[in-house]
Design a protein that fits this description.
10 helices; 67% helix
């Protein structure tokens, strides 16, 4: 059974179901990553500033992805194992804390469902071998970065750089693209947005995007190769324009309020992963 789950071909039902359940569990952990990683970065920054200035460290307690135990932010009630079952616990609790009845954000089960559904889709599409498992890692890192960037307009190096290096490593044997295309894709992805950043800054005096976006596109290039970069940039710009216009028109969001670009790069990267070949053939055929 384990051999079958490890090497099942695309379209196999059992590995797809297992991947969906596994994705729900990982989605629960991703909620922790999304919530805590920005706080961990801020605490580290505060401690560094305090250390350099000779002041006592403001944060000396342990705070990472494991400790302290998850708790209600309103009353401090520690979340039990039964209250932490993906999606099911949220439904049973009625979307409220069991202790103080404060509402729990719908985003928590939404991320779990997204992770579970996309995990099943990827294993159905790519199988459960090295390629399929690689796509799951690709997915989980992109989900975490999408929501962190949406919340804080930050793309942590602790996520972008592992994604970049894993993309190069997984393509040592041309799992997705030949290693040469992966290396060129990483370099070209970074330089592409780096160039746009400086052209925009020199022209307007403003920063149009952050360095995390450069690293994310470099990572996507490392996974999918340089030939996929035009499609990724085009798709991310299209999705960003649609969402941005929608926020301005429907949500009355000011045009001067910055919109994070990382989520659109992540969405474009997933679309390129799933539909990359026809997209590449389409735009290459135009030339």
């Amino acid at each position: 059974m384990m051999d079958f789950l490890w090497s099942a071909p695309p379209g196999s039902a059992l590995p797809t179901v297992v991947a969906g359940i596994f994705g729900l569990l990982i989605g629960s952990f991703l909620n922790v990553v999304i919530h805590r990683m920005p706080k961990m970065m801020q605490r580290e920054s505060d401690n560094y500033v305090a250390h350099e200035s000779g002041n006592p460290l403001p944060h000396q307690d342990r705070y990472d992805l494991i400790m302290p135990r998850s708790a209600c932010p309103h009353c401090g009630h520690a979340i039990t194992a039964l209250e932490n079952i993906p999606v099911i616990s949220y439904a049973v609790l009625g979307g409220k804390c069991r202790a103080c009845k404060a509402p729990i954000s719908i985003r928590y089960p939404a991320i779990e469902l997204l992770s579970g559904a996309m995990s099943a889709v990827l294993v159905w599409r790519f199988g459960s071998g090295l390629m399929g498992l690689g796509t799951l890692i690709f997915l989980y890192l992109l989900i975490a970065m999408t929501f962190i960037d949406a919340d804080t307009q930050l793309l942590p190096d602790d996520l972008t750089l592992p994604l970049l290096w894993l993309g190069l490593l997984i393509n040592l044997n041309a799992t997705f693209v030949p290693l040469t295309e992966a290396v060129i894709g990483a370099a070209a992805g970074y330089l592409c947005l780096w160039t746009i950043y400086w052209l925009f800054k020199l022209t307007t005096g403003k920063e149009g995007m952050g360095y995390g976006d450069f690293k994310l596109l470099a990572a996507l290039g490392a996974w999918l190769g340089w030939k996929m970069l035009p499609a990724i940039v085009l798709l991310s710009s299209l999705v960003g324009a649609i969402v941005g216009i929608g926020l301005i028109v429907l949500a009355k969001r000011g045009r001067d309020i910055p919109i994070p670009f990382g989520p659109y790069l992540a969405i474009a990267g997933l679309l390129a992963l799933l539909y990359g070949k026809p997209l590449t053939q389409m735009y290459l055929g135009l030339y």
